[in-house]
Amino acid sequence: MDSPQVLRKGTTLTTEDLEGVRTPRRVLVTGANRGLGLEIVKALLERDDVDKVYLGCRDFEAGTALCCGELWDLGGDRSEAVELDVSDGESIKRAVDYVSKTLAARDDGHVQKSREYLDAIVNNAGIFLDAEADIYRKSAAARASLAVNFEGAMNVTTAFLPLLADDATVVNVSSRQAARTLGFLEPRHRDAFEANDIEAVRRAAYEVADLLDDDYGPYTTLATPAHGLSKCALNAWTRIMAQQRPEMRFLAVAPGQLRTRHNPVVWEGGLRPRPPRLGARVVVDALYGAHASGSFLAQTCASDGTRFLRGEYETHDDSWESSATQVVDWVVEPPAA
């Protein structure tokens, strides 16, 4: 099932396609005090058109230390830490209250005279539990991953909606494994993920999670099932929100294999993940690029997409600075009609 919101592989967009869309000046980044999230913050602060970057951090002290140290040297007072645990509803509410107060413009008499809005959210906070198979059952790992990678992004965005500009952009950090997982699902589950019903997506996601422990079930050979399933659900929500809120932009972005605490090992055959700063460029380029709402974006080495799946794995040089994006299909191999 193709969504009209999803552009086909090879589609080229120009800046005229999104003429008049707000340039994000105030951005919230979740999971921002380490790894990819921190590099996204740095990439944003390097831009002259960014006024404020909020670092959503579970470790508030670590985030504050960054804002007063490394990030201060880069962007002065344009960064600010916000305590935010995306899996904790009360933490999300407190973060909304805090950001709301900082966005309220006040005169010298401390009387609110106007307010500003967030222009973008980058839902980066996430967990990767597939590498800890000796600790978690597959179903437990998948459920925990869904709670953070999928439900966490939804809950943060929903809570911050009153603070978002009417034409704001929401970028969800996804993975190519999401598309591979969708292509692997049984028809009944794939149909649910491709429906325009977030509750159907949620039910199907947790049903698949429970089937992962079945040694004779349909998903015994699914690679990194917890991660892929949670990002697959995140992509589905991205597409649904693009349809439900056409005045805003919702993008799912796969930054590629990165060298973070989630993925620290050298891959077999000498292949290794890239530094997170390169993944951050992919995310930030997507945020400021001319991409239609509902798109799923990933890095590629070739403009025609012929090396799409090979590009990120064949690079060994950390100096490789390509950050081009290519609009790709939601499933690698669409089902036959």
Automatic annotation (TrEMBL):
MF annotations from Gene Ontology: oxidoreductase activity
One Pfam family cited in the UniProt record for this chain: adh_short
Gene3D superfamilies: NAD(P)-binding Rossmann-like Domain
Domain of life: Eukaryota
Keyword tags: NADP, Oxidoreductase
Family (UniProt): Belongs to the short-chain dehydrogenases/reductases (SDR) family.
UniProt name for this protein: Uncharacterized protein
Originating organism: Pelagomonas calceolata
Origin organism lineage: Eukaryota, Sar, Stramenopiles, Ochrophyta, Pelagophyceae
